[in-house]
Amino acid sequence: MKINRSGSAVWTGGLKDGKGAISTQSGALDAYPYGFATRFEGQPGSNPEELIAAAHASCFTMALSLILGEAGLTAEKMETSAVVTLEKQDDGFAVTASKLTLKATIPGTDDATFQELAGKAKANCPISKLLKADISLDAELLG
């Protein structure tokens, strides 16, 4: 099975004074603004790194849901955030890390099993496989 998803970006102007717009196939983002200031100066708007963070958090959480199901478990609730790090290096900028933080309520499991299954999801979600960065996970079983 092969699935293709698409996103697009439009840019006008130079790097610092230019403006961009990001769109996704689903329409969740439709000409959403991004630019130098939103990426490097904390101004309102989107940037590639926050989109990668959202993609990584959602992919990991779905992967963990699958792995839990295979173990006969169902999460009551899982909340995952991701922080993607963009760093200046000798040859430009690179995404060097993605830190996943998970808080989960999963009846019928213990912390050791939870940590093992969460680690498996971290290693095997498609976005983790895509990233050439240090991927860490801080997983907390609640309840």
TrEMBL record:
InterPro entries: KH_dom-like_a/b, OsmC/Ohr_fam, OsmC/Ohrsf, OsmC_Ohr_Peroxiredoxin, Peroxiredoxin_OsmC
Keyword line: Oxidoreductase, Peroxidase
Organism of this sequence: Sphingobium cyanobacteriorum
This protein's record includes keyword Magnesium: no
Presence of keyword Oxidoreductase: yes
GO molecular function, one term: peroxidase activity
Protein name (Swiss-Prot/TrEMBL): OsmC family protein
Gene3D superfamilies linked: 3.30.300.20
The EC number(s) this enzyme carries: 1.11.1.29
Domain of life: Bacteria
